[in-house]
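Supplementary Methods. Inverse-folding protocol.

Structures were first reduced to a discrete structure-token string of length 412. This string, shown here, constituted the complete conditioning input.
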């Protein structure tokens, strides 16, 4: 049978089923639809942490949320840098939201460095800034940058002292680091941290999202790297590089998206007002993180292409499609396999978008509507027959033919 026998639409339907039985995603919108479930999961975790922290005084916890909402509103609404300009009100709200997120970050940084940093300049800034927080007209972005820069300079000075001391004592590890260039790289990194605001922001984003990086890399190893090694060592090592690159892009996207989302959340949360606005603002921040991660991940996919497992699945799907288009018996086998898989998925729970697309494709190929309940019933009967067959085999060492025969056949 030649390819010309099938129309473009029929070819598409066969292609859908070929992907379906090999595990290749048919629906390309599925990843985007995972943003809301992801936000719900992260929001649930954060809500659980809040509930645990305030378990002894929920009323006091809600009062703190109310105070935070009032404070946020005061800062966001006080911004007037762009008054009188085109879209000045919108720009002012964004500037105010930026100031509020900078204040939150400043307070967290001060709390961390208060007990960690031994540099007198850093401690002096912490004492000075603690009195400026909450004062009208405070530019929290400048304060945050000054404190981070001071700590970066302190880190550079401390590292220089440590290198000098280790060299003077003949430290083996320092000799190794000097010889391999690690000392030089560390010096360069710390010098950039002390002199470049953009570089500090980049490194802070990487460190601040280490948890997300570990999660993303872990998922990549389980779903891409390990299965790729089953296809061969060469494909496995290729996938390691792809997964590492994609993880880096996802982390960068999460950091960028979270930063923008936090500002948008602060602005929108202020408009809503109260503790509800705080909750909505936090959710918007999470959406920004997931969306940024998704967009950067898509960009990475364009660069490195599909995973080694996906490539193998696509090749298999293409081979099945070609055979099904050449031979009606192979097409009949394909429709039966797809029908069985659909029945199996329906019996185990809710059908996915891929299942629904496969069902529609099957119906158009066979020219009849599929009764899911009947398919599930037939599938369960098959399982029962197979179970009985196994029992008979164990007692009599004989078997019967229980091939799965759906209640349709494809005919040319």
């Amino acid at each position: 049978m030649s390819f010309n026998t099938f129309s473009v639409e029929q070819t598409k339907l066969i292609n859908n089923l070929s992907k379906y039985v090999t595990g290749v995603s048919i629906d390309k919108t599925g990843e985007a639809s995972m943003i809301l479930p992801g936000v719900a999961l992260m929001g649930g975790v954060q809500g659980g942490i809040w509930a645990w922290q305030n378990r002894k005084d929920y009323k006091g916890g809600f009062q703190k949320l109310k105070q935070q909402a009032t404070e946020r509103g005061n800062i966001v609404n006080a911004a007037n840098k762009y008054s009188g300009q085109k879209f000045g009100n919108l720009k002012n709200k964004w500037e105010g939201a930026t100031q509020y997120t900078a204040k939150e970050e400043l307070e967290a940084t001060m709390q961390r460095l208060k007990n960690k940093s031994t540099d007198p300049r850093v401690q002096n800034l912490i004492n000075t800034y603690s009195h400026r927080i909450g004062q009208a007209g405070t530019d929290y972005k400048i304060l945050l940058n000054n404190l981070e820069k001071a700590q970066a300079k302190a880190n550079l000075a401390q590292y220089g002292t440590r290198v000098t001391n280790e060299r003077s004592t003949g430290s083996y590890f320092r000799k190794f680091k000097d010889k391999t260039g690690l000392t030089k790289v560390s010096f360069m990194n710390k010098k950039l941290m002390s002199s470049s605001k953009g570089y500090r922001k980049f490194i802070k984003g990487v460190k601040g999202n280490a948890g997300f990086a570990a999660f993303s890399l872990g998922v990549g190893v389980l779903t891409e790297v390990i299965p790729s090694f089953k296809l061969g060592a060469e494909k496995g090592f290729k996938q390691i590089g792809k997964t590492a690159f994609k993880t880096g892009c996802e982390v960068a996207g999460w950091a960028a998206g979270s930063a923008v989302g936090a500002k948008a959340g602060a602005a929108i949360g202020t408009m809503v007002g109260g503790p509800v606005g705080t909750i909505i603002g936090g959710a918007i921040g999470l959406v920004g993180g997931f969306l940024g991660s998704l967009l950067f991940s898509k960009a990475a996919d364009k660069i490195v292409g599909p995973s080694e497992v996906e490539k193998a699945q696509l090749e298999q799907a293409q081979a099945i499609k070609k055979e099904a288009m050449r031979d009606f018996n192979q097409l009949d086998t394909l429709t039966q396999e797809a029908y069985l898989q659909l029945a199996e998925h329906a019996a185990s729970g809710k059908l996915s978008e891929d299942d629904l697309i496969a069902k529609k494709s099957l119906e158009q190929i066979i020219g009849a509507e599929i009764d899911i309940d009947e398919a599930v019933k037939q599938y369960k009967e098959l399982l029962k027959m197979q179970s009985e067959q196994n029992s008979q085999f164990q007692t009599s060492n004989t078997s019967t033919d229980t091939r799965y025969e759906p209640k349709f056949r494809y005919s040319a």
